[in-house]
Amino acid sequence: xxxxxxxxxxxxxxxxxxxxxxxxxxxxxxxxxxxxxxxxxxxxxxxxxxxxxxxxxxxxxxxxxxxxxxxxxxxxxxxxxxxxxxxxxxxxxxxxxxxxxxxxxxxxxxxxxxxxxxxxxxxxxxxxxxxxxxxxxxxxxxxxxxxxxxxxxxxxxxxxxxxxxxxxxxxxxxxxxxxxxxxxxxxxxxxxxxxxxxxxxxxxxxxxxxxxxxxxxxxxxxxxxxxxxxxxxxxxxxxxxxxxxxxxxxxxxxxxxxxxxxxxx
Length: 265
Known about the structure:
By secondary structure, the chain is an alpha+beta fold. Helices cover 34% and strands 23% of the residues.
């Protein structure tokens, strides 16, 4: 499994879409489970393969889990910002935590028809343009504007926000903010803050550019280096300094973690 393309969204969609990416299959005819790490974001994933196509909207993942992937399939994905996914399925965001939902059509176009169009295009960048045009004009999946604003603030600050500070910023009591998050996002502000902070840490570990773990912990909003290492290990089962700590790992045998996506022809 090779990530073959990373693209930034069009400016008018950047409020909702963080990035686009595609994965090229490695050949073979079977499926395999890959470990995925906790994630605050929703992902719109389109699969192309000889056995057919499929599109799913994957919700936030609150713990280490796994997905089943076909070795020969290609995947194309839009990664939404926390709390900013677009309304592409008849589902409550709170019902997408640690799971996914199939999407049969977008703006009246069936997934089969869309797959034919996308498959005929020469490269992922061309596919991105087609998908962006379909996304334009879609309403937010999270209907409450205060909730979207709160999630955007947390994301912009890398999770470096105390819940009481976030509530004050929105002019809400802490309990009101917690109810708002549970109703519209399916998780508490504290949990979303932790997931966003972890993802920012994960990105910094992957890209490098920090002098020490102590500096990295401070930059990512942890109390100290020990706090950062403990939180990373609790969420991933790995240590941040070990080789491959940020890699997607292919699993052998029966997964011991939650399966959030199964392959379906």
